[in-house]
Fold this protein.
Amino acid sequence: MSVLSSIEIEKVKIILKEISNPISIKVLKDSSPFSEKLIDYMKSISDLNENINIEISVTGAEPSISVTPNLRYHALPDETELEPFLKTLVRISKQNSELPDDIKERIKEIQHAELMVFIMPVCPHCAKIVERLNQFAIENSMIGVQVFDVAVFPEMVNEFEIMSAPTVVINGKIKLVNPSEDELIEFIESDKESEYFIRLLKDGQIDELRAYLEKNPEETASLVDLLRKSELSVRLGAIISILKMTEKKPELLGDIKNRLKGLLREDNSNIVQDAAFVLGKIGDEVDIGELEKLFVNENKDVREAAQEAIDEITSRNEE
């Protein structure tokens, strides 16, 4: 008996008429009721089109629908997710992502990316994001896409601290909530944490940044480069985050102090003052020499910032 409604059955029949070549879909099964739901659902779809073959595989992996080796659903593609799922099957059969040419060229150039998208069945924006990510995976086999239902995999929700849907996690690190297409491609292409940090700080998500750094403390040093940015919220957020992280993890100090000393040689007085301020907060006596070099700076504010930093280091060492 089909688990699809009469309306869904008609939708499946109409959309899957466009399938041009047979496709085989693997359902990974375990002992959970959820895996049985996946099997029943996919059988109901395959019963409506002879070009879809369903293979049941018992493995140690989490229950999922393996549409292709690089595209997997840990979610039931029903309700608003059904149509984009069916369109994905058609595109796979045609071996055509149907992406616009300009986007297609950019996606082809990506060397590797692992994307996880967290959805809810009745989420109004999730289906659009999932469909686009599926197209990326079809166009480039080096892009892995996994779709997770937040209600079925709470352990994944907790691990990545998912607060809303859709949320896309890029390479297990960068987390975007309901991103635009341009944002998605930009972050997949670059995988630059610094751009992600800027986005979080501009949006006032300093707690989100702190949570990221606690999981990836080795990337804290890249915050120093944000002191070059013109936006006050970005610079201030970077300073606060640097101070918090170096207090928790003193082993980060060496790299961060070296980068700050590099900023002391910048022409922009605001950058130099910020770098001196932070160095005064986290530095020690061996750093005073670099700060003393600023005494010949023509900018009075820079000279004062250097003296204040030295005074703070000195008073801290006297305690």
